[in-house]
What we know:
Two copies of one chain form a homodimer.
Chain A: E1 3-6, E2 10-16, E3 19-26, H1 28-36, E4 43-50, H2 55-63, E5 66-74, E6 80-86, E7 93-99, E8 119-122, H3 127-136, E9 143-147, H4 150-155, H5 157-164, E10 169-173, H6 174-181, H7 186-196, E11 200-204, E12 210-214, E13 217-221, H8 235-250, H9 255-272, H10 279-282, H11 286-300
Parallel strand pairs in A: 1-4, 1-8, 2-6, 4-5, 8-9, 9-10, 10-11
Antiparallel strand pairs in A: 2-3, 6-7, 11-12, 12-13
Helix pairs in contact in A: 1-8, 3-5, 6-7, 8-9, 9-11
Amino acid sequence: MSLLTIGTVAFDDIETPYGKAEKAIGGACTYASYAASYFTDNIRLCSIVGADFPTEEIKALENRGVDMEGLQIKQDGLTFFWAGKYHQNMNQRDTLATDLNVLDDFDPVLPASFKDSKYVMLGNLTPEVQMQVIKQLDGSQKLVVLDTMNFWMDIAMDSLLEVIAKVDVITINDEEARQLSGEYSLVTAAEKIHKMGPKYVIIKKGEHGALLFSEGKIFAAPALPLAQVFDPTGAGDTFAGGFIGYLTHTDDISFENMKKAIMYGSCLASFCVEEFSIEKLRNLTNDDITERMNLFKEMTHFDL
Amino acid sequence: MSLLTIGTVAFDDIETPYGKAEKAIGGACTYASYAASYFTDNIRLCSIVGADFPTEEIKALENRGVDMEGLQIKQDGLTFFWAGKYHQNMNQRDTLATDLNVLDDFDPVLPASFKDSKYVMLGNLTPEVQMQVIKQLDGSQKLVVLDTMNFWMDIAMDSLLEVIAKVDVITINDEEARQLSGEYSLVTAAEKIHKMGPKYVIIKKGEHGALLFSEGKIFAAPALPLAQVFDPTGAGDTFAGGFIGYLTHTDDISFENMKKAIMYGSCLASFCVEEFSIEKLRNLTNDDITERMNLFKEMTHFDL
């Protein structure tokens, strides 16, 4: 099957208690595409960068099976830039800079060959841009996944709700689920969000893992407890990319298979945080992934 | 096998967003004993109450297989009393009153027939009282579990460390694990705590479940996501009681069996919070427990 990923491709300045990285490759779409590339080589990327974005990074994505025809390269613009500094506990960070640059007037244009993508990952962007992408799809999609954040709930709730009504899966964190639904209990929050449109609600809880809700069923995936989280940037996007990449590969959206997809997402995210930027995601092997999935299984399975 | 539970038996005034209970039956030892009673009827309780504690509540515990010979009833004293009010989110609470009463000079005396208990649950009490209990045991114990809290780390760390050195399992929450070890990562925290004595470290994370660490292995148990948490009081003690009750019944302290024990603990805790005080723990059926354990299995298991 084919997977379309939409979102940011960026430069990040990152400071953690363990070091610094400047102009590191980042962006939701980059992380998601790398993660998905471990399951499928039929990925189509739609994003925008400036002339400053390295050609070898575009080639690197192509080498992982990502069709870059949908990447707009704006010759007179600069790539989206984000700078952040993580606190000692790694769960909190301060945003030091957000330069939208070319993202400011991003008008996503899907190449004709992208419109029939069966799986779609709508990375975190303005709801208006996400809707523009949805409108260009040919309607043959099997699963559309939406990622969003509290910022859009604060300033563009109406447009966001229109997008939410059109997707099959939403991924948000626990605080965002509470904000979106007005409910404290995540069970009740998920029920309310189902009624807004998405049949599947995935609530990300960072170091506490993720919850999948659908039709009264719940799956609880832990995150891997790690001795050292080196850089949490992109972990949520990597999780989403691993999740939809596995679904694209298996083309099975049953609840049972979604469980596995969530675990593959957690697995890829656990690698992501072990190094700065996308470094760890460049060269994983199938053995690395299999070994870690076995670890997740040992860590969660019990006999009755 | 035999199980000894030591800890408080108390009256609680509880206020939650869903209602109020006055002079409700509480105390760590009460919750743990009720939870354990679903797995074994060979439970020995050691605690202290005043003459105001209802005889029918003592009988109710006896009817669940709890030997009450170790319960001191101080005729001229009042039972330990705690009052607390939960915030809307149920994760935070204010303590409104703590009247130690008879607990103030509790001198635990184990009946001769209790000293050979193979499993021991040392509920949260001053480290000095916990040590007095350990010294009375005959040395034939198979597993001693310690519960403690940040309060003792603040005011009695040296005595607490002496107790920790003598137990096999410690149960604490994530913030307490960080305080005790001085490490933020729970993996590193558990490694440091192992070196203090306990072979098994159980880190309780409330609504996020619990982690078991032993010899480099990790098990992650989720809590059951609930639409409504009615009263969280005693959930941690119920978890510990279900855990050690199941181990007492099976007499198998392998890591694999501990996983199951942790899940039974989570299962009992999920019932505990559904009603005020110990009400829900009075009359569960085996079918209730089996049904909920199947739910936990569905919620955590995936195929590879």
